[in-house]
Amino acid sequence: MWWLRVKDLFYSRFTAGAGGIASVLVLLVLALMLYWSSEPNHFDVREAALAHAGGDDQRIWPGVVTTSTLIDVVTTLLNKRGGYISNDIVPPGVLMDNMPNWEYGVLVQVRDLAKSLRNDMSRSQTQSTEDVDLSKAEPHFNYQNDAWILPSSESEYRAGREALERYLARLLNENDQNAQFYARADNLRDWLALVEKRLGSMSQRLSASVGQERLNVDLGGPVAAAGSTDERAEISVKTPWLEIDDVFYEARGTCWALLHFLRAAENDFGGVLANKNALVSLKQIIRELEGTQATVWSPMILNGTGFGFVANHSLVMASYISRANAAVIDLRRLLEQG
Question: How many CB atoms are closer than 10 A to CB 310?
């Protein structure tokens, strides 16, 4: 019958058209995933601070570079390719995991520096009053990283950035005596203590990609030390196979943010570091962390054994971070005793 032939023709063309549209959508999603997975470039912290100061180099006094760098790192986190992806609920963001883990690594460093800025760097002593804007900024950055509504993570982080911008504006105003930044050795040392713990933990997590039987040294030291529960003398540590690339990209994000913050500290704490003969130690930490930002040429994060035929990208990253962590420990010792 003629109407059956028309029906079959219509159905075949509709099916072909729907298949073509689906193929185009799939290719578009894959292209966006590839485009959004590109990590942001590094920026010059001194030039960024000059932009915030209206191009006046004379206004780059202690605290300006650190605060402006923190603001610009948050801005990059929110405005990079694809925007903030960790809380996406639709493709392609919901299908991605490497970039959200990179974002989380950056966010952890933002939280640590915001905490140190609020509790230490902006206060002259423990009994001094905390800065009104910094006390508002830090809680915003500690909001959960994957909330998409009521309120979204982005809106909270933008509110934290706005509080930092108000603090920076007051800091740049030489007539405002309420906004302060104290470039002292103890303040830098306290922030580096946070950095030290983050890098130590990250190094251990990266090393666990191949699996290890480790001796439990949690209670090493004082004989009377005790934990809340009994623990085994040996513990097995291994990162699940599906989480290896997650840890790797979290480390990449951590080091990306930390590189900018350390370069800012080199500007703001330059006099203290020079006085302690510790400037070269900070530069060495930066040099080690720069190695973590090299281009990853492999389409996937390889997880070969330590001395096996296939490379292990996690162990390479752990090597750079471990050396940086050791240098941070030495730098803190210099700041305390130098």
Answer: 10
And the tokens for 141? 């950055």
311, 302 Cβ separation under 8 angstroms: yes
Question: d(Cα 151, Cα 159) in Å, to the nearest integer?
Answer: 11
Rounded CA separation 286/270 (Å): 14
Q: How many CB atoms lie within 10 A of CB 307?
A: 7
Contacts for 274 with CB less than 8 Å, ≥ 6 apart? none
For CA atoms 15, 18, 21, 26, give the dihedral sign.
negative
Q: Which of 336, 284, 270 is nearest to 66 (CA)?
A: 270
Which pLDDT value is given to residue 7?
44
Structure tokens, 48: 């960024």
Question: What angle (nearest 5°) sits at the alpha carbon of residue 38, between those of residues 37 and 39?
Answer: 110
- pLDDT value of residue 143: 97
Q: What b/e sequence results for 137-171 when a residue is b if at least 16 CB atoms lie within 10 Å of its CB, and e otherwise?
A: bbebbebebeeeeeeebbebbbbbbebbbbbbebb
Q: How many CA atoms lie within 13 A of 323 on its CB side?
A: 16
pLDDT of residue 73: 98
Query: What is the enclosing helix (H) or strand (E) of 214?
Result: strand 212-215
What pTM did the predictor assign?
0.89
pLDDT means per 10 residues, the chain with 338 residues, are: 48 58 80 88 96 90 96 97 93 90 98 96 83 96 94 97 97 87 95 96 90 60 57 68 89 98 96 93 96 90 79 92 96 87
Tell me the C-alpha distance between 155 and 328, whole Å: 34
Contact in structure between 292 and 317 (CB atoms under 8 Å)? yes
The b-or-e profile of 297-306 (16+ CB within 10 A means b, else e) is eeeebbbeee
Quickly count: other Cβ atoms within 10 Å of residue 58's Cβ. Answer: 6
Nearest to 293 by CA among 251, 335, 237: 251
Query: So what's the pLDDT on residue 6?
Result: 42
